[in-house]
Every structure is written in structure tokens, then in C-alpha cells.
Amino acid sequence: MTETVPALQARRLCAAYHQQPVLEDITLSLPQGQWTAIVGPNGAGKSSLLNLVIGSLAPLRGELRVLGESPAAQRRAGNIAYMAQQENMEWDFPISVRDTVLTGRYGLMRHDPLWRRLAPRHWADPSHRQAVEAALDAVDMADYAMRPIGELSGGQKKRVMLARALAQQARILLLDEPLAGVDPPSEALILDTLERERRAGRTVIMVTHDMPSARVHADNVLLINRTLVGMGAPDEMLSDAMLARLAVGDRGALSGGERVAA
Fold this sequence. Notes:
Blueprint: E1 8-17, E2 20-30, E3 35-39, H1 46-54, E4 61-66, H2 71-76, E5 80-83, H3 97-102, H4 106-109, H5 114-118, H6 126-138, H7 154-167, E6 172-176, H8 184-199, E7 203-207, H9 211-217, E8 220-225, E9 227-232, H10 234-237, H11 240-248
Parallel strand pairs: 3-7, 3-8, 5-6, 6-7
Antiparallel strand pairs: 1-2, 1-4, 8-9
Helix pairs in contact: 6-7, 7-8
């Protein structure tokens, strides 16, 4: 697979929850190895676009390709990692930080020999343990590995969820509001970690309301308000004029046309 194949490509994509449209006529192409920030008002369909990629929402119409193939094929191949919003997680479940991050490896464990999958966990392939430890180190949570996740602060929980995604060693990182509700040190650490992942060649696709971070870190900004309002460089997309169009849901902007982020 070459780097010229888009990381994410959609053509006239439509989706709905309970027959209520959330995305209409989305056509876009996102390159590999870049950081795209998805920006829009609440209820604009930003998270729905990620849900289409991870398979928790089915499209009504249109085509969605990930790395040139179906999203399901790329999920099976382990090429998509997803960091959900914190409120979607069950934080009272009695599980340690290390074991939470290890759950990110479960999909990859299905490819291990049967005897390893049936054996006690300490006989698992060492690569899983190594990936977990590396991910915990990356987000500065190794010292909390044995702590129950329910005892963590909001910023620490976000870092654990990021570590879980990193442990998958996927080519594409999907992140839903990773900076929401975090303290400044955790925000800086998360952004630094994502910068490293992008420099390592991974594709970062992040839903966010944090305009300053998008301006500084993103290569591309995708503006969505049910339809595609705009896509391009942060300085252009986060201008007052474009944000005003986003707020009113400019349904004519780029509708039905494709613009490839540079």
C-alpha cells in the first residue's frame, strides 16, 4: 500500500440516527501521515463520522474507504485505533490502568497461535506487554500501571485512553475530543504525544473544539455541520469568515465536490 492512497476517503456519504440525518453528502479525501482536526458545533456529525469508520454506525448512502479498502477490512487488519470520549467509558469497572491499556491489544491477540490465546496471560506473546509498557511510558502513566482507573483524575483518564489507542500500533489514530476537560499539563502531554505519532508517519484524525490547538498542531482542518463546510489549512478554515459559515451550516459550501487537503 502506497502513501498516495488516502487515509480516509468518502464520496456522497450520508448517515442518520433513527431516521434523523446527521451527515449529508460528505465527499472528502484525507492524506496519510497528516493531522486533521474535525471542527463543528455540537450535533454537527463530527463524532458520527468517526463512528462510521469504527463500524458503530452504518451509512445510509455513499462510499467510505480507509486506506483504499473497506473500514471493516482495515479494522480487522488492526490499522484503525479509536479513542472515545471519556463519558462513553465505564470508569467504575474494577480494572487497572495496565489492563485497560492491554484491552487495546485484544484485536491483535486474535492473530496469535491458539495455544497462546488459551494460556494464562503471562504466557502471552511478549510483544503485547511491550506495546502496553511503551504506550504507558509515552503518556507518562507507567507509575500508575496498577492503579484502578476509577481513582484517576480527568486528565489521567484521557492519557490512559490515549495509551490504549497507542498500544494498538495502528496506522490511523481516531480521537474524539481528546482535550476536553483535561488539565493544562495533560493537554500539553497529549498534544506532544500526537505530534510524535504524526512524525512517526501515523495519521491523526481528531474531533475537537479546541481552536488554538488546531491552529498550532493540525495540518488540515475539516469543518462539518452535517455537510462539508470546508477543508484546508488551519489559518484559512479557522478564519472568522469560515467559522461564521460553519455556525450557520453553509449547506452550499463544497457540497458534492471533493477537495483534497494539501
